[in-house]
Structures are given as structure tokens and as C-alpha cells.
From TrEMBL:
Transmembrane segments: none annotated. GO terms for cellular component: cortical endoplasmic reticulum; cytosol; endoplasmic reticulum membrane. It comes from Cyprinus carpio carpio. The keyword Protein transport does not apply. It comes from the Eukaryota. This is Oxysterol-binding protein.
Length: 581
């Protein structure tokens, strides 16, 4: 607990800072720089501290979400008795703020640029408002209006001591709320609490978390390249989609497959390993019904920024997928967002149809105060230009005053041109319904119950001792083993060895660009493409997956007889180990 105190007692601590639009008394909006500290919200004309506009005393305020039809996300701070929410003086003793349009005295309405930013501000303000003794400590400052110098330092320090006391009194829990299953709960040990507080010392609002060294106990013991493969345990849905006759039926089946990638999640809140530059992961899933195989390969093609490229193929069943993900994580005081920036291109080979697919962002709140929860948010699209079939799904974050039934909700539409063919609603981790617009008929589009889970395809991976040095499981095996043994010190040491080797390699490479082995960057489209798609390396009736020394996935001619059992031979010759469901 003294580590938490040490990490947070700095009076200059900033919970969050960013631009916000604020509505004036004349109904017009002004863009101002806002800095949130425990108990106060400082407002400036610019990010510097020379143009102070005003200070909001949060002890007097209530917070509500304010729905808006315009772009962005609105929320309101107000005094429940319509009294002034402003301090009389500024942080440096200023008695007159910089001139802006007139602002209301008893409330302020804010507009953030996006829902993600707005939710982060709501979470951060909830943290700032949560100190139970805030009103007592603010009373003296409110009477004489002096928030400058040592009085502000003392004020913030007392707030942090209260926050520390509340953290000590409570059991710290990490919880993933789920509508379709019991909530996942993990209690953080006293040793690991200290690691959290040490981590906080590295963080500043808006910081890119890819540059932060994370404690190993919050890591899911596998690489991000491995985690991206979770979307293909139900790849047989794509095999079925190719066979559907109508564009609408194919889109429906693609959406069903898309939803199948989200319900598999670790216990508690866990983050996979950040892949090492040049790291690769490969696996496959056997399809018993079609006697085919879906192959997956991914490579970390860039470190700063962190970009993961992937290629998936099942040529016998007629589909392949290519794409890349830029993982961006931002810290916002009491919350953080993880944005998977990029797109996947799903191609139905026999139909020459391409579906362009985007991803939701992850939103984690309660890092410093309250229950830590993980949600998905944002709008995703699945679009086929050839058929003019288009799906838009909104992943909804829990409203500020919402109940548990509002967690993990989604809603959306399937369109053909301008016509709405069906609506979609439900919970992404449980049951999702589809309603036909013309007939009103409703069906269960997706429900990952026990029957569906039993239908998961069996994933196969090459045994660790047969993998190359830079394949994920072999590369991270010592870290993974230490985490499994609950030896956090050894896990941290092993992780440091890998990260230091990567830094040393970067120093030796100096200004020379990194050349990925399996993917190439197309400067015209700004996308990564798998180098060897034209060689058709994964034809299920003719070849085995071979990972040769030059890094090219090549083929080895086998019997062309239809009775040839591809999956059994592949497993036997590659010394494949099943990873189960």
C-alpha cells in the first residue's frame, strides 16, 4: 500500500487531460483544454498553463450522460441545487480567467470527440467524484476560493490518502461482466497490488501502452498472434457460407462466423504478450464434415508501431482471409482503450466476392478505483461491394446509470443497397437474434451455449520442439512456464531477456529497415499482403504445410486420390499436437 501512496501522492497527478467542447450560455460550443485532477477540473484555452479559464469544484457536482444526435459524446456536470460550481480563484491565484464566451454558473455540458473518449471522461470523472470526504476537504478551499500553491498540493494529497484508504478497505477484484454466463472474477494478491502501483508510476494520460512494461501477472500466457486465431474455431461457418445461394444468406452466415470470435476469453482481465518483431505463429483446424483444413499464419511485421499481419486459407472449401492489425492502447486515468486498427479481407474464391471487415475497440474501466471491467464498443462493418450487401453492428458500452442487463449489448442491420433486410440485437457473449424486416420472423443468429462449444473445431499446432526459434510458443515458452508456475519474478526476468534481445537487435540494425519473411507492404493500398498466395501452398488434396528454412511456406506433392486423408497425414508428418477446444 505504501507503493500505491508513493505512486499517487505527487500533487501534480493528472487523472486525465484532453480537448473538450463546452457549451456556453448562448448555446454555441467552444473547444477548451481540460485537466482533471482529484476534486477539481481545470479549464484552459490552450494546453499550456498561461490561459486559465476557470476551475470546477467537483465536490459540489453530479454527473450524467447527455444523449446527443450529433457526432461525439456529451455529458453534463451540474450542481443539484443550482448553485455555482466554480472556484473563485485559479491554481496560481488568478482572480479573472481568460475571456471566452459566457459559461453557465451552475452546470457545464461537454462534448468529447468520440464515444470512446467520452466514456473515458465519464470513468475518470467518476473516479474524481468518488472520494467520500471530498466535500469536507474542499470546504475551506471553497470558502476562500484559494486553490493555489501548497493548499492545492495538500488538497490533492488528502484526496489520494482517502482513495488509498478505500482501496485498502476493499478487496480488489477484476471482473468481466457477461450477460450469458457467470461473471469472471479474479482477486489480485497483495504482491500483485504492489506491482499495479509500480505500473502506475509509468503511466500518463493519453500514453501509448505499447511503450509500457506490463507486470507479468496481468498477462495471458500466449502471444497476441496466437490470440488472433480465436476467430477460426468456427471456420466451418465460412465453409457453409460459401455454399449459400443468395448474397443475403451468405452475409448472414459471415456475420454468424464473425460473432463466434468473441465469446472465448480468459479468466479475469488478461493481456496477451506483445509479439516480438519477426515472431510468427501457425496452426490449423481440421474440418471433419468437409475433410478439409483451415490454415492460419501470422507474423509481427512492425514493432513501432506494433503491426500484426495474418493470412488464413482453406482452398478446398473456397475461402481465404488476409489482413493486418495495428494494436493501439491508450491510458486515461481510471480507464484505458485498446483499438484494433485495421481490416480483414475475406475472399470467397469460387464466387470472387470480397468482404471487408473491421473490429470493435476494447474499453477497460476501474483501473484505479472500483471494479475493473472490460467491454467492447464502437461500430463495425462487413461490406461486400460486388453484392452491395452491407452489415453494420454497434457494440454498446454500458450506460453510466445502466443495469447489468445493459452489458455487452449489440444492435445492427443488414442492408442490400439502401434496403434494410434484417435487424440484429442481443449480447455479443450470449444470444443474438435476427429479425427479418419483410416478414417480421425472428431467429437465433448466434448463441454460444454448450452445444455450440462442443462443435468447436480442433486446433492443431506444431510441437514446440519442432518449431523454429521465432515461433510464438517456443519463443515465449520460458515466460509461459513461469506464469504457469505462478513465479512472477522468474516470468518477469524471462520476459526482460526477450525484450532486451529485441532492443539489442534494433540497435544493431540501426537505420536499416526490417524486412518481414512472409508478408510485404503494398504502398498503394497501405496494407500488408502474404507473399506466397499465388503459389497455392495449401491445396488440401495435394500438399502438406511445410515451413522451410528460407521462411517460405511450400508444398510437397502427395497422392491425388480422393481417398487420401489429408488431415491425418498432415498431423502425422508435421508432428502436430492438438490444442483442444
Amino acid at each position: 500500500n505504501c507503493q500505491l501512496f508513493s505512486a499517487l501522492k505527487d500533487p501534480s497527478v493528472v487523472i486525465m487531460s484532453n480537448w473538450l467542447k463546452i457549451r456556453g450560455t448562448l448555446k454555441s460550443w467552444t473547444k477548451l483544454w481540460c485537466i482533471l485532477k482529484p476534486g477539481i477540473l481545470l479549464i484552459y484555452k490552450t494546453p499550456g498553463s498561461d490561459h486559465w479559464v476557470g476551475t470546477i469544484l467537483l465536490n459540489a457536482c453530479k454527473l450524467i450522460e447527455r444523449p446527443s444526435k450529433k457526432d461525439g459524446f456529451c455529458f453534463k456536470l451540474y450542481h443539484p441545487l443550482d448553485k455555482s460550481i466554480w472556484a473563485m480563484k485559479g491554481p496560481k491565484g488568478e482572480s479573472v480567467g481568460s475571456i471566452t464566451q459566457p459559461l453557465p454558473s451552475n452546470y457545464l455540458i461537454f462534448r468529447a470527440a468520440s464515444e470512446s473518449d467520452g466514456r473515458c471522461w465519464m470513468d475518470a470523472l467518476e473516479l474524481a467524484l468518488s472520494c467520500s470526504s471530498l466535500s469536507k476537504m474542499s470546504a475551506k478551499s471553497g470558502r476562500d476560493g484559494d486553490l493555489s500553491g501548497s493548499s492545492e498540493s495538500s488538497h490533492i494529497l488528502q484526496l489520494l490518502q482517502i482513495s488509498l484508504h478505500q482501496h485498502t478497505a476493499e478487496r480488489v477484484h477484476i471482473r468481466c461482466n457477461a450477460a450469458g454466463e457467470a461473471s469472471q472474477v479474479e482477486t489480485v494478491s497483495e504482491e500483485n497490488k504492489g506491482l499495479i502501483w509500480t505500473l502506475l508510476k509509468q503511466l500518463r494520460p493519453g500514453m501509448d501502452l505499447s511503450k509500457v512494461v506490463l507486470p507479468t501477472f496481468i498477462l495471458e500466457p500466449r502471444s497476441f498472434l496466437d490470440k488472433l486465431s480465436d476467430y477460426y474455431y468456427h471456420a466451418d461457418l465460412l465453409s457453409q457460407a460459401v455454399m449459400e445461394e443468395s448474397p443475403y444468406s451468405r452475409m448472414k452466415q459471415v456475420l454468424r462466423w464473425y460473432l463466434s470470435g468473441f465469446y472465448k476469453k480468459p479468466k479475469g482481465l488478461k493481456k496477451p504478450y506483445n509479439p516480438i518483431l519477426g515472431e510468427m505463429f501457425r496452426c490449423c483446424w481440421l474440418h471433419p464434415q468437409t475433410d478439409s483444413c483451415t490454415f492460419y499464419i501470422a507474423e509481427q511485421v512492425s514493432h513501432h508501431p506494433p503491426v500484426s499481419a495474418f493470412y488464413i486459407s482453406n482452398r478446398k472449401d473456397g475461402f481465404c482471409i488476409t489482413g493486418s492489425i495495428l494494436a493501439k492502447s491508450k491510458f486515461y486515468g481510471n480507464s484505458l482503450s485498446a483499438i484494433l486498427d485495421g481490416k480483414a479481407r475475406l475472399l470467397f474464391l469460387t464466387r470472387d466476392e470480397e468482404y471487408i471487415i473491421t473490429m470493435p475497440y476494447a474499453h477497460c474501466k476501474g483501473i484505479l478505483y472500483g471494479t475493473m471491467t472490460l467491454e467492447l464498443g464502437g461500430k463495425i462493418t462487413i461490406e461486400c461491394e460486388k453484392t452491395q450487401c452491407y452489415t453494420e453492428i454497434e457494440y454498446k458500452l454500458k450506460p453510466f446509470l445502466g443495469s447489468s442487463c445493459n452489458v455487452n449489448q449489440i444492435s445492427g442491420k443488414i442492408r442490400m443497397g439502401e434496403d434494410v433486410l434484417a435487424t440484429v440485437d442481443g449480447h455479443w457473449d450470449s444470444k443474438v437474434h435476427l429479425t427479418e424486416k419483410r416478414t417480421g420472423q425472428q431467429e437465433v443468429l448466434w448463441n454460444p451455449g454448450p452445444d455450440i462449444r462442443r462443435q468447436r473445431l480442433k486446433r492443431q499446432v506444431v510441437q514446440v520442439d519442432q518449431q523454429e526459434a521465432f515461433e510464438s510458443e517456443r519463443l515465449w515458452q520460458h515466460v509461459t512456464r513461469a506464469i504457469s508456475d505462478k513465479d512472477q519474478m522468474r516470468a518477469t526476468q524471462e520476459k526482460f531477456v526477450l525484450e532486451e534481445a529485441q532492443r539489442q537487435e534494433a540497435r544493431e540494425r540501426a537505420e536499416r529497415p526490417w524486412n518481414p519473411r512472409l508478408f510485404t507492404f503494398n504502398t498503394d493500398t497501405n496494407e500488408w499482403h502474404y507473399k506466397y498466395t499465388d503459389t497455392k501452398p495449401w491445396d488440401p488434396e495435394r500438399c502438406l504445410l511445410q515451413f522451410e528454412k528460407d521462411g517460405v511456406i511450400q508444398t510437397k506433392e502427395k497422392s491425388r486420390r480422393r481417398s487420401f486423408s489429408y488431415s491425418q497425414n498432415w498431423a502425422a508428418q508435421q508432428k502436430v499436437s492438438p490444442t483442444g477446444s
